[in-house]
């Protein structure tokens, strides 16, 4: 059974650029959530996709957008990068049986470390 | 909305000593409660969770946590710490009503010394 994988591992961008992060969910999982973890902080929820539809969104501006594909892999896109976007971006997959974000057990990938200069 | 506080930023314990990591939550009812561990360069791994029933929850790697409604706490414990337990630990709280995501604390970094 393959776990959650994310690519790339590290990324360096400059302010104003755009970035795409990728996540492959664990086999059999239909739900993907994205989190931002700034240095010294806990993960903050960005959004979740359940069966290719957005199922919830945290307090992040519209320049953070996402996509889930038919094979349930997912992308996180960030436009117009700002210095404060520097963080570890975590993807988590789950088998959405309840449709509720707080009960389905999430399995996290190792994250993508984004540095914005 | 729910919130969670982990009062200790960093804790150092000796190998073989007992461990308790504190977690306090704020929520109008009994929430769902979780503990995750994050090792360097890795994602978060679920240690244990509390939904209902027995307030003492057993998890993986010898960890347990106790839900105390009167204290709004969900502290994580381990009777004997191993050097491999050195990591960042996160408490998270989920709401029972509606469809809202988990809210994570800021984490407690555990260092283990010989």
Structure description:
The complex is a heterodimer of chains A (117) and B (114). With 117 residues, chain A is mostly beta strands. Helices cover 0% and strands 49% of the residues of chain A. In chain A, strand 4 (31-37) and strand 5 (44-50) form a beta hairpin. The model of chain A has no long low-confidence stretch (mean pLDDT 92). By secondary structure, chain B is mainly beta. Chain B is built from no helices and twelve strands. In chain B, the strands form three sheets. In chain B, strands 2, 5, 6, 10, 11 and 12 form a six-stranded mixed beta sheet that branches. Chain B has a four-stranded antiparallel beta sheet with strand order 3-9-8-7, with no helix packed on it. In chain B, strand 5 and strand 6 (44-50) form a beta hairpin. Chain B is globular. The N and C termini of chain B lie far apart (41 Å). The mean pLDDT of chain B is 93. The interface between A and B is medium-sized, with 26 and 24 residues.
């Amino acid at each position: 059974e393959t776990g959650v994988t994310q690519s790339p591992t590290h990324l360096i961008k400059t302010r104003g650029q755009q970035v795409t992060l990728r996540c492959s969910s664990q086999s059999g999982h239909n739900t993907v959530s994205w989190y931002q973890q700034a240095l010294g902080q806990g993960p903050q929820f960005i959004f979740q996709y359940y069966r290719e539809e957005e199922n919830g969104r945290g307090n992040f501006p519209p320049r953070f957008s996402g996509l889930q594909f038919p094979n349930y892999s997912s992308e996180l896109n960030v436009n117009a990068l700002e210095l404060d976007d520097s963080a570890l971006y975590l993807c988590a997959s789950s088998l959405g049986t309840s449709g509720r974000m707080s009960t389905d057990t999430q399995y996290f990938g190792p994250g993508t470390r984004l540095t914005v200069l | 909305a729910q919130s969670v506080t982990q009062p200790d930023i960093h804790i150092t314990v000796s190998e073989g000593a007992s461990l308790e990591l504190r977690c306090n939550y704020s929520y109008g009812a009994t929430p769902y409660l979780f503990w995750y561990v994050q090792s360097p360069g890795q994602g978060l791994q679920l240690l244990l969770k509390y939904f209902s029933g027995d307030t003492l929850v057993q998890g993986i790697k010898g960890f347990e946590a106790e839900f105390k409604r009167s204290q709004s706490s969900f502290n994580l414990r381990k009777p004997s710490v191993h050097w491999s337990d050195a990591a960042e630990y996160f408490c998270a709280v989920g709401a029972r009503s509606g469809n809202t995501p988990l809210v994570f604390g800021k984490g407690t970094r555990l260092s283990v010394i010989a």
